[in-house]
Every structure is written in C-alpha cells, then in structure tokens.
Design goal:
The protein has 3 helices and 4 strands, in the order H-H-E-E-E-E-H. The chain has helices at about 5, 10-20, 70-75, and strands at about 25-30, 35-40, 45-50, 55-60. It is α+β, with helices and mostly antiparallel strands and about 80 residues long. The protein has a single domain, classed as Viral Envelope Glycoprotein, domain 2 (2-Layer Sandwich), CATH 3.30.67.
Amino acid sequence: MISWSELAKLPLEKKISLLYQHAHFVMAIRYYKQKVNLYLLGDDYIEVFIDHKQTLIERIALLDRSHTRMKFYSDQIKLPSGI
C-alpha cells in the first residue's frame, strides 16, 4: 500500500492512478464550483478536486481537518473521532 507521503511527491497523473488503485472511496460533496471526492488511503483522508464542467481533476490533497469543508463531510457521515 502506498502512503500519502509517497503519493504526494508524484505527478498528478500518477497520483490519480495510484489513488484509484489503493484508496477506498468514502463520499463526494459539492463545494462551490467543484466536486470533491473523499478517499481513505491507509489512515489518511485524501480529497480529489474535480472541475465537473470540464471533467478535469484539478488537484489531489490531504484532507485539511481544520477547513470549513469538514462540515459538509460531517453532516453526511460519521467520521472517526480525532479527525
């Protein structure tokens, strides 16, 4: 299994491929003009930011647990404590 620290160093195209192979999809939210897919990779939650109008993955990032997006996730699912 690949870790986030290893994945983060790779180009976007490789990140996409490895994330889809090794991570588990948790849920998707709409956040402003983006669709954000949340994945679980080992113990890390990873966000995939998609411009749904252009059908383009813009970036992949480790979940920022202090970001206001957390409310969108926590309203829909019960995340483990400590998140």
